[in-house]
Design brief:
Blueprint: H1 2-13, H2 16-33, H3 40-68, H4 74-101, H5 106-125, H6 133-146
C-alpha cells in the first residue's frame, strides 16, 4: 500500500514512466540486498522496500498504461497489462522453483530473481513515448490550432 500511494504521489510530480522504471530497478536492488548480513531491523526495512517497490510499481503501471494507450483501446491495453501481470504471478513460483533446484548459493538465487525487476525497468525505459496517446493527442492539437 505504501508503495502504490508513494509511487502515485511521485508519478504526479515526475514523469510516470521514470517513476516506474526506478521502482522496478530499486525493487531488484533491494531484493538482492536481502542477502547481506544486517541486523533484523534493517532486514525488515529491506523486505518492506522490496514489497513497496515491486507491488507498488505494478499498481502504478496500470495508471501508466491508461496514459499510454489511446482512449479507443485503453481498456484493452490495461487489460493486457493486467493479464501479463497475472501470467507472471503464475509463472514466477515455477521459475523460482527451477532456480532453487539448481542449488545455487543463496546470493545467486536472489541475484537471478532480482534481475527480473532490472529487466522490467530496462524494458520500460525503452518505450517510445512519441507513439503514446498523450503525445499523439498533443500533436493533433498543435496541428489543428496551427491551421
Amino acid at each position: 500500500m505504501i508503495g502504490s500511494i508513494g509511487g502515485g504521489w511521485l508519478a504526479d510530480r515526475f514523469h510516470i514512466k521514470w517513476v516506474v522504471v526506478c521502482m522496478y530497478a530499486l525493487g531488484g536492488v533491494f531484493l538482492y540486498m536481502m542477502t547481506l548480513k544486517t541486523s533484523t531491523e534493517v532486514l525488515y526495512f529491506i523486505i518492506a522496500a522490496v514489497g513497496a517497490c515491486s507491488t507498488g510499481a505494478q499498481i502504478v503501471v496500470y495508471a501508466y498504461s491508461g496514459q499510454y494507450y489511446p482512449s479507443d483501446i485503453r481498456s484493452t491495453g490495461i487489460g493486457m497489462a493486467s493479464g501479463i501481470g497475472r501470467m507472471g504471478a503464475i509463472a514466477a513460483p515455477l521459475l523460482i522453483g527451477l532456480i532453487v533446484s539448481l542449488q545455487l548459493p543463496l546470493e545467486q538465487n536472489f541475484l537471478v530473481i532480482g534481475a527480473a525487476g532490472v529487466v522490467g525497468a530496462i524494458a520500460l525505459a525503452c518505450i517510445n513515448h512519441g507513439r503514446s496517446a498523450s503525445e499523439l493527442t498533443l500533436k493533433t492539437l498543435k496541428t489543428s490550432t496551427a491551421t
